[in-house]
Amino acid sequence: MESILDLVSSFNIDEQTFFLAVILIATVLLIFTLSMLLISSRSPLRTRLASLKDTSAIGTAKKVSRLEKSLESLAPAMKSSNEKENETIRVKLMHAGYHDASALTFFYAMKGISVVIGFLMAASVYFFAPDISMRNLIMMGSVAFGLFLPNVILGRMVDKRQRKIRGGIPDALDLLVVCTESGLGFNAAIRRVADELTISHPDFADELDTVCVKISAGVEMSDAFNDLVTRTGLTEIAGLVTMLAHASRIGGSLSQTLREYTEDYRDKRNQEIEEIAAKIPTKMIFPLLVFIWPCFFIVAIGPSMLMLSSTLGK
Predict the structure, then answer these.
(1) Does residue 191 fall inside a structural domain?
(2) Residue 61 in domain
(3) Is residue 158 in a domain?
(4) What is the pLDDT of residues 4-18, one digit of tens each?
(5) Do residues 124 and 60 touch, judged by C-beta distance below 8 A?
(6) How many domains, in total, are found in the chain?
(7) What is the spatial distance between Cα 45 and Cα 51, in angstroms, rounded to a whole number?
(8) Nearest to 255 by CA among 185, 177, 172, 171
(9) What is the residue range of 206's domain?
(10) For 254-295, how does the pLDDT look when each residue is reduced to its tens digit (9 = 90+)?
(11) Is 193 part of a structural domain of the chain?
(12) What is the DSSP string of 257-308?
């Protein structure tokens, strides 16, 4: 064991050798990516399986493109062995609106391509900009950029979709109250609200349509709405699920329950807006100190300072 440690410590790796090794790894990854793309697109086994799948489906199965097959072949190279991390990514993809079984595969495939691009950027900086300042930091930043860019983009997509769905909840609740009070059943009311929100809030309309389909298929109303909370990641409507389940269990009026929840939700939104408005003065302190006060002192004290300097100069 000591001889092995002595042998390892005898190697002196300088900076140039290290970056050459990084470039070698990036080149190998690029060649591996291209080879996997070519092999997967021409694989006879995949072609045969795709043909069997197309012939077994009665006009409903969609053909998978060569690019999708190639991405599926690249995914295992970047897929994490940690099941908890994979489940977290899968939940984020579901919150972003990607419910397909192959969404996780495509995400890891795109992450692998992003990592290769990051290594190529680092190699370009090393070869074409050797005299740039903080070259090592830029190269490390390029690799980190390629590694974490897909996660950042996915997080922004989740926030954007949740913001759109959250914006459609008040309109949906008001329409649902009107529909239930006019005599429509709850399932028919959800269907009507989903049809009305198709243009203004398409994401939330799609989720409501899924809830309506599940209720029509025999799923309990509370379970269907709990699935809605799970798919969207919005905990704001968890209270609605509880109130509807309680009302259906005791035989209460759904329209009255919806009206009370709508009023509570409206009050909650007003409180959130007031909280945001109360934070504005605190957030304005920094730009006030940096941009406004220096201009004020220049205008107020500048002329007197110029007059004082000219007087003392004479």
Answers:
(1) yes
(2) no
(3) no
(4) 445 445 555 566 666
(5) no
(6) 1
(7) 10
(8) 177
(9) 163-269
(10) 777 788 888 888 888 888 888 888 888 888 888 888 888 888
(11) yes
(12) HHHHHHHHHHHHHHHHHHHHHHHHHHHTHHHIIIIIHHHHHHHHHHHHHHHH
